[in-house]
Amino acid sequence: MGGSVNIARRGEASGAAIETDGDAAASLFPVPRHVAIIMDGNGRWAKGHGLPRFEGHRRGAEAVRRTVADARELGIEALTLYSFSSENWSRPQREIGELMGLLKRFIRSDLKELHAKNVRLRIIGEGHPTDSEVQALFDEAQALTRDNTGVRLTVAFNYGARGEIARAAQTLARQVAAGALRAEDITPERFAEALDTAGLPPLDLVIRTSGEQRLSNFLLWQAAYAELVFLPVLWPDFDRGWLEQALCEYRRRERRFGGVEAAES
Prior knowledge:
The protein has 7 helices and 7 strands, in the order ββααβαβαβααββα. The chain is α/β, with parallel strands linked by helices and 265 residues long. The chain has helices at residues 42-48, 53-74, 93-116, 132-145, 161-177, 188-193, 240-252; strands spanning 4-6, 34-38, 78-85, 120-124, 152-159, 205-208, 227-230. Helix 1 packs across helix 2. The two termini are 29 Å apart. Strands 1-7-6-2-3-5-4 form a 7-stranded parallel beta sheet, sandwiched between helices.
């Protein structure tokens, strides 16, 4: 898997390129094509501010709006956000209900703006098992933005990477059983085409907020050679300065994809 780092301090710049390694001309470019974010820390943010957990989730939704806009301005081609894992159903029912209500309001209030800004929205995961209204909103959002050519925003909802990999394996197994595919033709590339993220650029960078340092069943296949950056900021406080710091860390990495540089003669 790609390198990882826990960044303890944020850059002073916000909304502009951050200078690094004494290079006055340092720039954020080239930026990674595909960035994924584990948006962690809403509950801890709320607790730290003496507020109910729902307020943390509401402020987290505001951070999503900022981040999508910033990704668009910085030239990131694809942004994938971990919004609700398949394990999150074990949370208290009241909190789940509040989250679903917030998700509905977010789609209803932001869909037109996302469409106007040429954002293409995609939902991955297993969908909502009981709420047909949520699923209908997902379908509407994806249909409306299907032909957009700007930032590809992917929202992982009721998503777990192990489940995604199992579903892909089942899809290919059925094709083999039907005689449409030979087992020896199942390559890593063919397998990737059966995943929820088929068609997206390779994953370059995974960012996790809140200081936790694990992937939590998120994009396990796709992250094989992604760079990992762990930030101490809680998600509701994530802003462009934090995003730029993660991009600068990505820019400093040597991406060899398992190879080594040729020895100097």
